[in-house]
Amino acid sequence: MDGEGEPEGEAEEEVVEESSPRAAPRTRPPSMSLARTMNGKARLAAGVSGKRRDEERRWTRREAIGAGSTLSVAATSTTAVTTAAATASTASIAAASAAISAAAPRLPRLGLGTCCDEPAAAEATVLDALRLGYRLIDTAAHYPSEAAVGRAVATARQSGFFETSGGAASGGDTPTVVTKIWFDEMGYEPALASAARSLERLQCERLDVLLIHFPGSPDAVQSPAANRKLRDATWRALERLHADGRAGKIGVSNWTRRHLKETIASCSTIPHVLQTELHPRLQQSALVEAARAAGISEVA
Questions:
Q1: Same domain for 76 and 59
Q2: Residue range 72-99, pLDDT digits in tens
Q3: Which residues are catalytic, by number?
Q4: What is the rounded CA–CA span in Å between residue 86 and residue 114?
Q5: Are 203 and 141 in the same domain?
Q6: Bridge-partner residues for 275, per DSSP?
Q7: Taking residues 242-270, what's their average pLDDT?
Q8: Which helix (H) or strand (E) holds 176?
């Protein structure tokens, strides 16, 4: 470890701080089952029905939506959107999306995640989601779906969908697309190059939301100092992209409180967005409070 390193005991914190399931709160809705997605993110699968299902829905809405005006939720299941496209009316989904979005002017409150989707499936699902009123689409440079998201948005735009679709959820506005720089593309010049590739794949001149995917590189996991330098250099690249108009909002993903504190202390531009795992069984209250205190929006 070099001279700028942190105490040796913090090396493991690089990976597990704030993200361990052991940090789960004592208060939680009854009988919830946790299903893991391929990328290790957790999503909820309710194992209840009737009155208990309604009770849990109220609890989840109060904790996840009522807690603040800046929270956005990116869905991890695209299969559910495809099913909804076949069974639900566009008007009803758009109305629900409008109600959720009304209190969140900075980011749409309801979104679609595309991690691990193959390109053809991702493109079809994103098109279905856009037709249903979704206006936040999440992807990443490392996902096979990034170019497919770009094609889907371009197809919808060329068809005139955004100009002709009505309702507050659609409103003629194009969606907000979130993408992320992978950990092996961290560093000042690599991050700029990664963003250029994402611009090309997404077929746009400006990235709506650009995040750093992880707080460091795995091969430097035993060197907090090395990863901190990577974070600082990568963040400077994002600040440049934001300043010259190639990125709208910039932010971080999977940051812990320590990472967030360090970034805020050293940056010129405070992150606009923090993307992290949030749900009733992993609320990360201290991290969320730190983000909100700095005016940072959360995407769960």
A1: no
A2: 555 444 444 444 444 444 454 445 444 4
A3: 143
A4: 19
A5: yes
A6: 253, 299
A7: 97
A8: strand 176-181
